[in-house]
Amino acid sequence: MISGYGMSNGFDLYVQDKKGGSIDDLLRYTNNFLDALNKRPEVSRAYTTFDTKYPQYMVEVDAALCKRNGISPADVLSTLSGYVGGSYSSNLNRFTKLYRVMVQAAPEYRLDTEALNNIFVRNSSGEMSPVSQYLTLARVYGSESLSRFNLFSAISVSGTPADGYSSGQALKAIEEVADATLPEGYGYEFGGMSREEASTGNTTTLVFVICIVFIYLILCALYESLTIPFAVILSVPFGLMGSFLFAKFWGLENNIYMQTGLIMLIGLLSKTAILLTEYASDRRRQGMTITAAAMSAAKARLRPILTASMTMVFGMLPLMFAHGVGANGNISVGVSTVGGMLFGTIGLLFVVPTLFIVFQTIQEHFGKTGR
Hints:
Elements: E1 11-17, H1 23-38, E2 43-47, E3 54-61, H2 63-68, H3 73-85, E4 87-94, E5 97-103, E6 120-122, E7 128-130, E8 135-142, E9 147-149, E10 152-161, H4 167-181, E11 186-191, H5 192-223, H6 228-233, H7 236-250, H8 256-285, H9 290-300, H10 302-320, H11 327-370
Antiparallel strand pairs: 1-10, 1-11, 2-10, 3-8, 4-5, 6-7, 9-10
Helix pairs in contact: 1-4, 7-8, 7-11, 8-9, 8-11, 9-11, 10-11
């Protein structure tokens, strides 16, 4: 649960009427949208609690009669609202707590339309007259409440992604269904966590690209080479593959907790790759062949790499098998980190030396060609 966004998972959105049509039309288009959305495999269930079949009374005020009796129609509606719906009066401090004081008729005095005969309004001469003589009631059906989103009439829609699909795939399905089913003048806006996810999802790729560029430049400064940093960068996906394989085996989705574990995993795997390549680069500068330098680095760094990796794996096992409150988040972090460290460590011991041989050879070849 994230404070301020609710206690349930899934997605929230509002279907909006942007052309000022009727509520019945908005509900009809919303139902068509929900029918099409529930047919998509990415969505387990999409629904709305909005309906226009609630029994109600339509209240009409006889303004002419009110004026003749010296009463404002606004006073009649205000009195009716206060007695039936209640109105806020003030606050009361008692027993170290703050209470709201509401003015409202007792329940037994507002059960039916006959109760209007016992509700009085004061005219300009100070006399009291029942509000029932100024009102005309008609039984109708309508919505229980009307809501607006971005100043447009809107109907709230909720739903959950299907098993095996992420919330991002569900949001993409919503966009496609909305484009196909909602006519001109009607649209939608995400709400709650879905709104935050939709607004930040487009920037994720850009952020990762910028981070990779900065990491590459830093590694170039470290190795004083334009090719060796690729041996570090291209080795990281092998560890990420282990994270996603473990997540698929555990039935987890790529949520924010798993992404947090991936960020930590990328740093650990990069550290391992940097240890190998830096040691191999030193041995190469001492006169060893490229292949011998790579093999020497793998042998020399085998024990510290395995020790650090196994320590991380065993430290994450309690999160991986967590129970109770917050278990889903702990399991996502633990599974992504353990899977990535196991696959990544084994893969890096074989992949990084190979990549070092390839890119070191390329660097020296082009270096000689340039001279």
